[in-house]
Give the backbone structure.
Amino acid sequence: MRTFIDHLVLVVERDLRMLLQYKLFLVLRWLWFFMQVVIFGLAISYLVVVSDYINYYAAGIYVATLYSTSMFIAFDIQEEAEHGVVDYLLSLPINRRVLIVGRAIGGGLRSILATLPPLIFVLIMIGVRDILTLLYASIGLLLLSFGMAGLAITIVSVLKSGDKVDILLGAIDAFIIRLSTVFYPRAFMPPYYSAISVLNPLTHASELFRWGLGLPSEGDPIFSLFILLAFMLSMTTVGILLYERRMEGGGWT
Amino acid sequence: MDGSVAVRVIDLTKYYGKFLAVDHINLEIYDREIFGFLGPNGAGKTTTLLMLTTVLRPSEGNAYIYGYDIKGHPDKVRQFIGMAFQDPKLYWIHTPYEILLWHAKVCGYRGAKAKEVVEDVLKSLDMFEARKKRAFELSGGMRKRVEIAKIFIQKPRLAIFDEPTTQIDVSGKHKIWDMIKALRDEGSTIILATNELYEADILSDRVAIIYRGRIAALGTPRELKDTIPGGDVLEIEFASPLPNSVLVDIEAFKQVQRVVVEDSRLEIYLNEVEKVLPRVVSLLIERGVSVKSVHMREPSLDDVFMHYTGARLREGE
């Protein structure tokens, strides 16, 4: 008889293995990242007044890449649903909470793995000044990716429609990146944008990562980590509750 | 089949919006029996099975799987259940081997044993050569075999097959039927949903005829056939004259509904033909009638379906 932990590991393993199926997608994504940093980032750094903007930009765009990769699990779940795989998963002798927590962890972990080459690139480019602060910041990145995977699962569980998921994720993407400090510091935002950006987990992840890299940062690392932890816990909890409500005995269709 | 109840279904009902898909079904399925759900597409078979599997929540009523109710203890229920879905549930980028190995691990196999059991089942279902193809590269029949293979790996206490042999070739069907029987012999209770008459007839210990969300009839295939008045037909050709007294005596059997004599041929419409046949033949021989040939014809489950629903199963109407 398998235990909860065994099943959790199997669910996580399944999502991690899924990553191996997207080799071309990953390579293209990494290519896009390098191009974005070495061409766009470099060019834009000559235009802006912020000193060392290329490093600021590289750290920010890594967080943005991590975010969008974490959200990608929504498309996997949506596609699985269209192939009827969700019904199969729901019929298995796996506790439904274990299933969703496992998928959130799997989605988060695979995002970290999928963005490992860009992360290494950024670390080499900027350099590591203090390994402990970097490790501390990395916890924040993990929390962000688990929380985003939980948010993605929540969205796809509620909408149950590929088109609607596409539209909503596109809309979220447009706002969450632009209303954060991924690309520009809060000091350069209009006050109302700045106020909103404080609530944005991407802001806290970006600032925490910059702090971990020894770059100038606008946030308090402890507060940022707390916000990211709260974001992860709330997204996973909401995901579990909605998933259970919508899926437990409700099926996909 | 040992007579203890594996599944007890009480007023199980499912609405999709205002559409009533399953209408207050009540039945019991015994441990280690093969229980068939026979009905056309859209009759409510799959919806019923999805409720038993806890994938769908009943709108009303409940069901108990080995004592655990599907609403209150879905996790417990799923410990007993394995379901092979009507449409194979395979993610297009995965290979049969990956799909089944993961399934085996979820069902409790570990390490080398998991690989061994997956390879054995793949070989049994003539799938071993195709084990590394991706799901989207497989034919419909092959995809169906992967879906069914999950259950033969899992060997659940309650195995549910939803139209297990659609898209499968004839030799494959026979192999799967043998494997389903073997699974029952190893201790599993089987629920088989099908719209194939022959499959339901040869596999099922008991059959529930389901139509428009309701159980129209339930019994062994033999019992169901016997419920059609005069459903069996006994055709006897004779070479010598037939005395009237013989006809009177034949009509006196309680199972006989109608007797028709045409030239040198006697047609007897009756029930329980296997009981009556030896008595009729003895009677004819005793009265000196020379019998040339005897032909026995049973009603099919399609006749049973027609009798209870007024529709032909083949047409689904």
In short: The first helix of chain B runs from residue 45 to 52.
